Automatic annotation (TrEMBL):
Source organism, top-level taxon: Bacteria
Protein's GO biological process: protein folding
One GO MF term attached to the UniProt entry: unfolded protein binding
Role of this protein: Participates actively in the response to hyperosmotic and heat shock by preventing the aggregation of stress-denatured proteins, in association with DnaK and GrpE. It is the nucleotide exchange factor for DnaK and may function as a thermosensor. Unfolded proteins bind initially to DnaJ; upon interaction with the DnaJ-bound protein, DnaK hydrolyzes its bound ATP, resulting in the formation of a stable complex. GrpE releases ADP from DnaK; ATP binding to DnaK triggers the release of the substrate protein, thus completing the reaction cycle.
Compartments in which it is found: Cytoplasm
Key words, A-Z: Chaperone, Coiled coil, Cytoplasm, Stress response
HAMAP family: GrpE
Coiled coil: 42-120
PROSITE patterns assigned: GRPE
UniProt name for this protein: Protein GrpE
Family membership: Belongs to the GrpE family.
Primary location group: cytoplasm
CDD domains named among the record's database cross-references: GrpE (cd00446)
Native species: Colwellia ponticola
Gene coding for it: grpE
């Protein structure tokens, strides 16, 4: 009996307040442990989020670079296509240039023949008609291929289209006026292939008022 009484006395008996405090302390410890675990989980997830954001930024940068490359490549292809189309167009327009220049010699010869032949002579009538028909047929053929004559008679002298062979003072005619066309010029699709050879008027010499 004495031993059991002593044992019971040695055991500490908690009051209700102490028991409540112990329970609260245990609950706080559990909450703290859960908080630390949650913090670790959140940190790990944040690292994953950071990695994903970096990967996304890298992917966006790659896409942007590739987009610029595609745009530049497309622009280069468009430029090549445009230059090729221009070259083809030029080749088509001016492929006949050498042939046209050769044909102009025939036109010149026919025109000179008509200028020098005696049209009043009945014996030459059939010859004149034949030359005129040939000349008109040749000119019509040239015009179909956009070859146009430059005949600047009485027009202002234009050094881009005309070649002055001589100059002469002509009373009543303004200076730098074409007074004679010795040989017509020609254009092919607006491009000069032969300048007109002309004679140009010049200004009269100035009179010294004090003389």
């Amino acid at each position: 009996m004495t031993t059991e009484s002593t044992k019971d006395n040695n055991e500490q008996v908690l009051t209700p307040e102490q028991l409540a405090d112990e329970i609260v302390q245990q609950a706080e410890e559990q909450v703290e442990e859960q908080h630390e675990h949650a913090h670790e989980v959140i940190s790990a997830e944040q690292e994953k989020i950071n990695e994903l954001e970096l990967a996304l930024a890298s992917a966006q940068s790659t896409v942007a670079d590739q987009k610029d490359s595609v745009i530049r490549a497309k622009a280069e292809v468009d430029n090549i296509r445009r230059r090729a189309a221009q070259d083809v167009d030029k080749a088509r327009k001016f492929a006949l240039e050498k042939f046209a220049v050769e044909m102009l010699t025939s036109v010149d010869n026919l025109e000179r023949a008509l200028e020098n032949i005696d049209k009043d002579d009945e014996n030459n009538k059939s010859i004149v008609e034949g030359v005129e028909l040939t000349l008109q047929g040749l000119i019509s053929s040239l015009e179909k291929f956009a070859i146009k004559a430059i005949n600047p008679q009485d027009e202002p002298f234009n050094p881009e289209l005309h070649q002055a062979m001589s100059m002469q003072e002509v009373p009543g005619v303004a200076a730098n006026t074409v007074i004679a066309v010795m040989q017509k010029g020609y254009e092919l699709n607006g491009r000069l292939i032969r300048p007109a050879m002309v004679m140009v008027s010049k200004a009269a010499p100035s009179v010294d008022a004090t003389a």
